[in-house]
Amino acid sequence: MSEARRMLPIGVQSFSGLREDGFVYVDKTSYIYELAHSNKQYFLSRPRRFGKSLFLSTLRAYWEGKKELFEGLAIAELEKGNKDAWQVYPVFYFDFNGQNYQARPLEDVLDSMLCHWEEKYGCEKQGALSDRFQRLLKLAKEETGKGCVVLVDEYDKPLLEVLENDAMEEHNKAVFKGFFGTLKNNDDYLRFVFITGVTKFSKVSIFSDLNQLEDISLDEAYSGICGMTEEEIRAAFQPELLRMAEKNGLTEEACLQKLARMYDGYHFYPGSPGVYNPFSLLNALKKGDFGAYWFGTGTPTFLVRRLKNMHFDVQQFAKHTIYAEAVSITDYRADNPDIVPLLYQTGYLTIVDYDRAAGLYILGFPNKEVEYGLLKSLFPEYVPDAVPGSGKDIYTLRLRLLEGDTESIRDILTALFAGIPYTTNDAPFEHYFQSVLYILFTLLGQFVQCEVRSSKGRADCILETEKFVYIFEFKVDKSAAEALQQIEEQGYALPYKADKRQVFKIGVGFDSKERCLAEWEIVR
């Protein structure tokens, strides 16, 4: 009989439910101990589905004194001998998940939350939302003798959902300014405040008014507060790792390496241990397959459209030439033309290095799931009709590459570039040409070994299959013969001289005026 499968907490956001129902838990409670015994007001930004809600639920259980849920965890040992531990505090838990803020006013959501607490404390429903909240904080402190704990989960959900509606976004900001501004003037009634979100919106009262709110989003000490490190995965998921490795015909180490390529790579402090996306990792371990689980839960339509419309140089993703200051990647302003902060905050970019002399973070894709997912979403924006089954899609091109059918490869690339839309508002053809080639060949890297040039002295693109090697050199407004000449003169094919596979040297010339692939020459 095979070993019983354990329950993995995919999408589980209740700490009480997780512990009571026997789900596997990666212990993050030492962070709670540190937070509770240090400052008293915090903000944490992490991408969606990264475990923020579960962490906040764990905080709630701690402040509600549910000691039994923490037996065997790090905090139980850390709080030993502390006579003040496990006391029950009045907790105000604001959960902004699960609402449609384009259909339901933010005021209604806040009103329903306050009504629940007003009934609990026997408080009259009277006055503005901020007045009612202030009254509750004061009454709870007077009734219990303890300061209030305010936990806010995904505060920015009502703002992110209406990003393309400027009037509604400004309205919701104003609602928040009036409501959470209450915290500034009621510090005497507060014991602990913890606010989470994907991004930190500029000009929202939570941040402009609460000067004592400590942002720990980029703190080294809290870089692993959400998500999972390799060390945690090895310790907590050994049975699942072994089962997945066996299913995929891999050793345990090879399986972990593939998981790392797909889901690891998030860094919330330069040089800190890599953090895996917990949603994707848990799904992969449960199903035994290396799927695009996190990306599949939400297409970044807004981001994709902005990247295309602003003519963002997508080749920067590969070159690691995307830089940002600390203040910019933790703050979001709708009027900011720079899309990089939003790409970082939403999890499509992460910290890959740090230039200490300039004080700049260097950003890039965290892993293959994000890289392929974002580029796959971008591709139709550049070539709208390159859909599966069209004969000029990536999957058809892959088949022709495997077959060594260079004529069909030429025809597919010719059709692809013929399908690029032409409008007066578009960027120059060279931008499109470079973007399409980068996206196309990077996506082909899912299926064949593919290297897109990121530095001088290398071919534009080299594709390797089991039987063939393709060396491409592309030119704009120059001949295919010139491209081939460069392949020969630079010796791009020399590393494959003793290779038994057939080598194709392909020169391609593009015409920017006609916006098409104009010439194609090949040497076998």
List the helices and strands and how they pair.
Layout: H1 15-20, H2 29-36, E1 41-45, H3 52-63, H4 74-78, E2 91-95, H5 106-121, H6 129-144, E3 148-153, H7 157-160, H8 166-180, E4 190-197, H9 205-209, E5 214-215, H10 230-236, H11 238-247, H12 252-263, H13 278-287, H14 301-309, H15 316-319, E6 322-324, H16 326-329, H17 340-345, E7 350-355, E8 360-364, H18 368-382, H19 394-403, H20 406-418, H21 429-444, E9 449-452, E10 461-464, E11 468-476, H22 480-490, E12 502-511, E13 516-523
Helix pairs in contact: 5-6, 11-12, 11-13, 14-18, 18-21, 19-20
What does this entry look like structurally?
Helix content is 41%, strand content 14%. It has a 5-stranded parallel beta sheet with strand order 2-3-4-1-5, with helices on both faces. Strands 9-10-11-12-13 form a 5-stranded mixed beta sheet, sandwiched between helices. Strands 6-8-7 form a 3-stranded antiparallel beta sheet. The chain has 524 residues and is of the alpha/beta class. It is elongated. A hairpin with a 4-residue loop joins strand 12 and strand 13.
List the main descriptive attributes of the protein structure presented here.
13 strands, five-stranded parallel sheet, about 525 residues, five-stranded mixed sheet
Based on helices, strands and strand pairing, what is the structural class?
alpha/beta
The coarse overall form would be elongated
Q: Helicity, in percent?
A: 40-55%
**Termini, distance in Å?**
56 Å
Trace the largest sheet across and list its strands. Answer: 2-3-4-1-5
SS field, number of helical segments: 22
Compute the number of strand runs.
Answer: 13
Q: Rg, please?
A: 27 Å
Q: Describe the main β-sheet briefly.
A: 5 strands, parallel
Strand content: 5-15%
Q: State mean pLDDT (0 to 100 scale).
A: 90
Low-pLDDT segments, ≥5 res: none
